[in-house]
Amino acid sequence: MSGSSSSLKPPADASAPVRHPEAPSPGELLGAHYDQCFGCGGEQPHGLLLEARAGEGVSLTAEFTVQPAHQGAPGLAHGGVLASALDETLGSLNWLLRTIAVTGRLETDFVRPVPVGSVLHLQARVTAVAGRKIYSTATGRLGGPDGPVAVRADALFIEVKVDHFVDNGRPEEIRAAMNDPDQVRRARAFEVNP
Ligand SMILES: CCCCCCCCCC(=O)SCCNC(=O)CCNC(=O)[C@H](O)C(C)(C)COP(=O)(O)OP(=O)(O)OC[C@H]1O[C@@H](n2cnc3c(N)ncnc32)[C@H](O)[C@@H]1OP(=O)(O)O
Q: How much is the pTM?
């Protein structure tokens, strides 16, 4: 069964999403937005190490390999970890819009169990934008990009100013990210247009 709450349905006056002219080309890897990110960062040994690739329009694909550290039931991925993979994939879409945004709502359907060792093939796209609200949807499939759907989610991201992170994040991490000599990485830590 599936169906999402009314707050995940775009209003009648919502617009189609517009891909930023400098968004990565279709097929290009997005790379990590922050090396300490649980979803995509290379410095998190038990993280998801999710790799996202730009698609056409405001869409992308990503892959997540389920490791033993991601178990809930024996041999199966934890549902919260799968929700994290969907959240990270959906959050990465904002880089194609060059909008800084955070998840306000994430509704997930868990359709099939996901075994340890399997690769979850994720596909996500922005469906509409209305003011600060970004509506998006994602699926995760097993066995290949055309395999059966194991998880899916609808989400609402809310555009924020960079102050959202500066005012609320722990100062040591904010300072370190702000002082990163790599300009693109520094910008991407907060998903800001460099
Ligand atoms: C930059 C790098 C990020 C990329 C990383 C990707 C990782 C994946 C993304 C994440 O996991 S982000 C981390 C998880 N999310 C958060 O920590 C967000 C915590 N929540 C907040 O900070 C605030 O609630 C939020 C910024 C989302 C909204 O607060 P605001 O004060 O800015 O907005 P406001 O409450 O006025 O809401 C603006 C509109 O959005 C609507 N809205 C806000 N939260 C909602 C919600 N949860 N459900 C439905 N609608 C919501 C709200 O009703 C309103 O609609 P209207 O304009 O029509 O009145």
A: 0.96
